[in-house]
What does this fold into?
Amino acid sequence: MQPIWALCTSVASVTSSARLAFALEAMQAFKFSTWKERRLRSACSRSGVFWAARCFSSKQKHLPARFGSPGQGGDEGNRQQHDGHRTRTSEQVNPESPPPPRSCKPPKDSRPLGWKYKKSPGPAASSREEFRNLREDDFSKPWRRRSQKSLSVRRTQGSEILFGVGPCSIAFSQAKRNFFQLFVKSSSSGLRPVMEEFVQQAKARGVSVRYVRREVLDALCKDEVHQGVCLEASPLGLKSVEETEVPACRDPQQLWLLLEQIQDPMNLGTVLRCAYFLGVDQVVMSRSNSCPLTPVVSKASAGAMEILDVYSTDDIPRFLKAKIEACWEVVGTVSKSEVEGNIPVVDCLDFQWEKPTVLVLGNEASGLSPGTRSLCHKMLSIPPGIALHPGLDSLNVSVATGILLHSILRQKAKQHNAISP
It folds into this structure.
């Protein structure tokens, strides 16, 4: 800091106009130096040595405008510095955090000079950022790329992936498909006995066995419950009831199940499981607007789809007319709210099974089509146990199938027990 008496000695050697300009400049420099010294003491006392060095080590000739010019706003600058220190103290800034780069520019807002605060994103942007962090913070990008590339598995064209212990085991035992690869979850503790049995069956049939990670199995079955095993096999198609000779049954009291436009694979799998468990003779389903026999259906049926011979028809009315001409009885299903006066409605507990019967089940949403309903001799209904709320007056098609089949097929069981000694 240049002493004031030295400045005054220099002023005596210049002209009067230059003296005035030089004096003003000297006073300005003196005032600036005094104000800067006050600011330095304030910064050192409030924010520590680091904050003082950060503010005044750049040797800038002009201070930021928000600190106030040397001639005006000095007290206001002190007040802002005091407020900024209060804000940092309330936020409890970590003293061990690394210092910001010296080249960063001071923020434009009223915050004290220091860290460069980013503009806070909006609610949607912050939500996306948080979700991305939750999803990606476990693995780095190169590792994720390697893991995604390693999940790709070569498959035979036109094949499908069976998953689950039940479907894979029964598919091996029934041998209705062609098998290509068996995928087993690798484990450091060794294979379970059921997995060892799978491996032995696959090797006996000449099927290659691959030990893979759980992520590979998840990708193969599209995140379904695979229980540690997947089997690549050929699809299991439907047989046409018109073109295929259906095996004749010697029992005159037969029950066929006809499914019209069942679209949900879980419902179809559960219906097939009920039909197999309760002893339905044949299952026929409409080919159009119906769920195909997929691995999801096989898993929902616990492998019953691999055992049953499921037939299809393109023309349900023609199929029913052929059965009527063969003296079969066609029985439809209806809820209490859909009762019509043209066709008699019988409680399923009161139905008398006296001749071969076709039980027809309709779509999950619309039920039986008008053409199919007109060919039914009777309509079965399930009596509710309480007064039903409007809009909740029916059962799921798979649940209704189990109740109706049990109410009909129990009559055969009673007759069999009455005849046997």
In short: DSSP finds 14 helices and twelve strands in the chain. The radius of gyration is 42 Å. Confidence is low (pLDDT under 50) at residues 58-93, 114-118, 135-149. The first strand starts at residue 160 and ends at 163.
